[in-house]
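Annex B. Sample input.
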Amino acid sequence: MFDRARVTRNRDRASSRFREYAFLKGRESTQLLERLNDTSREFERALDIGAHDGQACEALRESGKVKQIIALESASSMLAKLQSTGFETASMDGEKLPFPEASFDLATSVLSLHWINDLPGVLTQVRQVLAPDGLFLACLFGGGTLPELRAALIEAESEITGGISPRLSPLPGLHEMAGLLQRAGFALPVADVERVTVRYSHPMKLLEDLKGMGEQAAFAPRDGQERRPLSRRILARMSEIYKSRFSDPDGKVRATFEIIWLSGWAPHESQPKPLRPGSGRFSLADAVKRARDGDAD
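Annex B, continued. Sample output.
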């Protein structure tokens, strides 16, 4: 679905001014640190997948809970930035993690995994490169991201051209990601969601931010055909629709980002395990009956 070379190219182009636009990367890197602080564990070796220019790596380093951090990134200019700030780096070739099994006791990723084609396969690889009882903690954009922009683009393009082309990436939902964690073999998997609303003076400012984040479309060509670029006419009509439907009383427009957080552990014998079916000592029916009898007294 995604052209990985184009994803990398978009990130390379965004690298020089990335932090001027990547406020969500910074926000969720802070969230990563807060969630990491929920565990009393300290970690010898961490892998940050899709590190961009290192905001999440910096949060990990500042936490004092991680001794060594490896930043994994595909864009060469982002890698250069990481190296200039003292991080050990590795280049991600396609969607293969270039590490042997049980190499890390912590794996993180902040707003990168939504560009993966084989997400089940990469999650399985993450679990494999974790040592037993290693922690995976990550977030990615979910299916409820930018519904306003999607709706305005679809209506504008269909109105002007009589059809639509893919413009915004399809994104996974919360329940889908929870299932993928289980499928990948993580123990104690948890998935939850947060929504962030950002307000803009104009819809085109949103598009500017997406480009600055390296988050513009990167679909693989279909049957060798390149995707049609958006014309000025479509963009103008999109802006009109967006402002008419998604404006606040002060004239600013809303943009919603859905962020799915994931956590799971590489299996280990010390972890709590669910009871076998039928092994409980009391039945639910008995518990309900006892509660009723107590109320009657």
